[in-house]
Structure formats: structure tokens, C-alpha cells
Fold:
Amino acid sequence: MNRFWRVPVGNFWRQNLQRSPLTEVEDSISLRLLVLALVILGIGATDIAAETSFSFWALPLSVLGAIWSYYRRRDANVAVKFCIAIGMLMALGSFFGRLVGELNDTRLGLAELLIQLQVLHSFDTPRRKNLGYSIVIGLILLGVAATLSQTLAFAPVLLLFLAIALPTLVLDYRSRLGLQPLKTQKEKFNQKNSLNFKFLTLTFLLIVSLGLAIFAVLPRFPGYQLRNFPVSSAIQLKGNFTGRSIINPGYVRQGSGNNQGSGTGQDQNGQPGKVDNNFYYGFNSQINQNLRGEMKPKVVMRVRSQAEGFWRVLGFDRYTGKGWEVSRNEDVTTLKRSPWSYQIYLNPPLTTAKTQEIVQTYTVVADLPNLIPAMAYPKEIYFPTPMVAVDTENGLRSPVELSEGLTYTVISEVPYRDRTLLGQASTNYPQQIKKHYLQIPPEIAEKVRQRTEEILTNYSQERVTKSSKRLDSPYEKALYLAQYLKQRYSVPQNPLDLPYLEEKDDLVEAFLFKYNGGYPDHFSTVLTVMLRSIGIPARLVAGFSPGEFNPFTGLYVVRNTDAYVMTEVFFPKYGWFAFDPIPNHPLIPPSVEDTQTFSVLRQLWHWVAGWLPSPVTGLLNNVFETIFRWVIRAIAWFLALFSQGWFGILTGLILATTAAFFGWLAWGQWREWRNRRWLKKLPAMESLYQQMLQWTTQKGLGKHPAQTPLEYAKGSYQHHAPATAEVIDEISQAYVGWRYGGHTPNLKRLRQRWQGIKKAGKADK
Structure:
């Protein structure tokens, strides 16, 4: 025992500690500064994308930690390591505590945890591999910011990150190889030990160009492979929620305390009413289309969706003569979610049509009413409140106003629009449908019916001389009437050109028989009433158009001016389908039938086409359309072969093998053409020497990179015939003399001898 206690364990540990490597200590200040810049950019990018304020405390602490680590890089810093470990455990505990309230979207929580760990880690980065961890953390933060970003404000940060990352990787690679640190001087005598800014700039431009090209042609397939969708933090409710009231900030500002607006179209002074500058008048249980004015454009939502669509808000069933109202506003169903999930199940669509599941995530940018926009036929909603309400027109209502920053996700089961099936739909409507969706004020019912039938009759008479489609179904009638209104009626250029309707005036009657047009929303009202007049159930729906698609963020940017109303028509067994009679709008609103696979490439083409003359654009459109059509047909035909039994599978394999063979031939010819082009650009002696090396390589006796030309020529006597080796030696001697001695070779003689060797080689074959 006495011997054991005399063993100098403590001295041994202290000596080892003093000698401990901190052998891989990184002394390069430039590398440390660049790594710090990457981390700062990663934190700043997270702040920009998520609109947080991590930078206020994380950036100064990161700088302080980097300075501390540099000056203490050769010390053990055991006490600091223990403090860092304790801090990391505290950060982890805080993260798990916060995770309980953010189960549906943990990205921001993970980013904050990563930032906290990086700040603590910055106080202990003596070695190169520690700096490597920081580089990875900066890259991860940038990736998190990319998933959170909804604007192009993230793009400059991404480019700056790439510009800093390139020299950082160069310095890190040299450090791994143990090379001397690079300097940034540009003097000629120091070029071999300085950063090549020209190379870095060209590499940067190449990466950006290649990235944009790949981004443009990359297919945009439906995402959301996980069933965990973005949702804001939980919102606690106060009071009892019935879902009957609609909170529209626009009407509150106009002084209507009941949030229902005015049905007379007049303000408090008896003057013609005006729409609110910021809020759409149609998002309410009662709307008055006798109002005048315009909204100031502003962004209200950003939507990420698997398909472009109409973001539906609510529907109206009762026409009042100057507007619409929800007649069954009191008949609302409230649906609660479980306390541990944000998911609320809704009633599935009652349709026999083929449907497609579409996921949409909405981020509110400006305050909106408590009406929840969603694509048609929502079946699930992930919302931060404990409950939502559903009205009789399939509109979703929130217990609270949709405030700035709120995020929620909707899953809709959207039916496909099959014109043939809808044209064959029955006209035997359920009694409940006829009761609510055929209502017209009796004062105008007969007059509107006669005008509608007159329009349809005129079309039938024109069809006698033209091979047009017959209007023998409600679908074709709705389609034709919507197109008729677009073409025959107009929108006034000046909002004040349309007179204010008097108390006894009817909007539809004035539109058709007095003013020959009206405001955009009036077109949808007129179409709805015209369809009802001939026994086709229809209703008015309000919502937002898809908005402007940003190909760089993948989001639809929706403004308040994108809000409008259009007509939905009921088809037994298939449900409600929309028609848009407003001029300059698509007749059929975009839906799941429109492919989004190459939407980015389409957006870029539209941008380029905007700068080209119309004839050129039309020609190119026809050419591209023809090419894509034939390519798609060829692919479909090829894939169909594999469903035709063994003969089809065998045929498909033969065709695939043949195509691969011709592809291989084409690849070989292309490489040979590139090689010939490269040889032509070389000096004559260099070209001849390279041809000789390529020929010997094909013979299996190529030159090793470590060999000099003269060493290779000397060794060729052991592997080639004497005559061949002599020519190789002569060409190599001439090449060395030309390259390093400045001697002019006898190219004519060398070429003759080389051609003789090649011919002799062919004769031997």
C-alpha cells in the first residue's frame, strides 16, 4: 500500500495535461473569422426568416466566445468545459419544456436550441475540428431558416453565406492537410500562397448558375410526406364560442358594433356607403354590393399548397336585391379537438367524383376576420384554438380573429372536374337544395328568367349553322352563361361611373337591363340569379384567388385585392363546382386538374415571354406545347407496354436496351468530338504529343502521371516494337525541347512518322 501511494499519479496527470495535444490547435485567425461569420449569418438568417430576435444576445456572445477561445486555445480550460456542459443541459431542459406546447412545429424550438448550443460551444473551439462543428451548425441554421422563410429577404443571406463558405472551405481543407495558412496579398511573388479570388468568384458564379438552372427544371411534386403540419402556438379562449358571429375588423371600423355591416348601403349620414380601404366587404354574414370604393393593396396571407386553388372563405344562399346574406347563420356546428393534438376532423365531402387530397398551410400576414380560408371540401384542419365552427355553406369559423403571424394547415379532399360526368348529372335535386338555392325576389324572377332563356335560345338557333356543343345540361348552360357575361357586359373604367342604386332598384335588373354591366362582384351575383331563374341551384361564394406564386419561396402571396366572389353550382352526387363570370378571370378557377410539376419552369417562361413580341411568343408556345405533348405521349405509351403481359414487358425491355445502346454511341461520339476540339486548340507540338499519349493509352500502355516524358520514352522500348518506341522517343524528345528549351520541332517529319506508326498499327489488326 505504501508503494501504491508513492506512485506519482498526480504528477503524471499534471504532466500529461501540460503536454496534451492540444496538438491540433488552430492558429489561423482568418479561418476563425470566416467560421464566426458563417455562424453569425446562420443566426441572422433564422431571425430574418422567423422574425425572431436571437441576434440581440447570440451575436455578441458568439463574438466574445470566439475571442476567448482564440486567446485560451492552448489551455485546458477544464472549469469552462464544466460550465459549458451545465449550460447545455439547462438549454436541453428548456427545449423539452417548450416542446410540449409546440408539438406540431418544432423547427423554431430546435433552431433556438441549436443557437444556444453554438453560443456555449464558441467558448471552447481550440482545434480545427471544433471549428468544423461550428461550420456545420451554421449550415444547419441556414437550412432551418430556409424552411421557415416565406419571402425573398432570405435570398441575399443565402448568397452571402455561399460567398463566405467558399474561402472557409479552402482554408479548412488546407488546415486539414497541414499546409501553411494562406494570405490575401495579391503581389506576384506571393501568388502561390494567397487566396485565388478569381477562382473563388468563378466558382461562386458557377454554383449559383447551376443551382438556378436545377431549381428551374426540378419537378415540383406534392410535398408533405409527414402528417405533422405547421400550426401556431395554442390560443386559449375566453367565454363561450358559438360560431354565429363574424368578426370583421372592416365593419367595426365603420362603426357597426354588431359586425354585420349595413344592409342599406348608406353611412351614418345617409350618404352612399364606401368599402373599407383594407378589408374586403364580402367577408360577413350580410354583404351589400351597393357600396362604392376601392381597397389599397396589401399582402394578407402566404399560402403553401400542393395545388393552386381558390381559397374559399364563406358562401351565401339568400339574395336580397342589393347583396347577399347567410340565411341560416344561426345553424352552426362547433367541433372540438383533443387537448394533445391540433387536429380537428370535419365532415368528408359527399361526392362520387374522383378526389385528390390537397394540403395547404396558411400564414396570416395582416389581420383578417375570424373566417378561415381553405380550399373546397376541407376534411381536416390543424388550428391553434380548442375548437372551430362549420356553417351550412361549408365555411370554417374561428373563435378569434385571424391575427398577424397566425399559421394553420388544412387538408382538403378536392374533387376533379370531369366535364363529361357533370354534363350527365341528374336534375333531380334534393328538396333541401331547392329550398335554399333557387330563391329569387319575385319582383325580378320572371324578367330574369325570360332574359336567361332568350340567351340560351339564341345560342341554340346559332347552333343550327355551326357545329357547337348543345346546351342540354345544367353544366353546359352554366358554362355558356358565364362566358356570355364575360363577353357581352363590361366593368366601368372609373369606379364612380356606375350610379348608386336607389332603394327600389335591384342589382341584377340594373346590371342586365339598365347599365349593361357592373363591378366585378356584380357579375357573379348576376350569374347566380340567372341560373336560379331557370331552376339550377346556385350560391355565391367569397374567397381569395390563388394570388401571385413566388417560384423561389414556393408560396402563393395573397393580397386583400385578390378577394372576390364567384358562383358555385350544385350537381347531384358530385357536389358544388365553381364558375367565374368576371372579365379577365379564368372561366374555371384553378384546381387539382392543373399540373404543378414544372410550375417554376412555367413561371420563368412567362417572365421571359413577357419581353418577347406576341408572334414570337405564340410560335414558341406552339413549338414547346407540341414537343411536350409528344414526349408525354411517348412516355405514357412506353409505360403502358409493361401492363400488357409478358409480350409487352419483353417489348419494353428491348426498346429500353436499344435506347441505351444508341445513347452509349451518342455519348462516345460526343466525347470524341470534344477531344478533337480540345486537340485543335492546343499548339501543334502539344497536340501531337497528346495524340501519341492517347494512342498508347488505348493500347494499354499509357504514361503514368509521375513519369517525365523522357522517362516514359525510355520505358517504351520495353513494351513496344523498336520502330514504334523510336517514334515515341523522337516525339517525346521534340516535345521536351519545344516545351522547356524553346526549340522549333520539325512537325512535318514528326507527323509523317506518326501517321506511319498508326497505319502500321491498323495493318497489324
User: Anything to note?
Assistant: Confidence is low (pLDDT under 50) at residues 1-22, 184-191, 221-226, 252-270. The two ends are 87 Å apart (CA to CA). The longest helix spans residues 645-681.
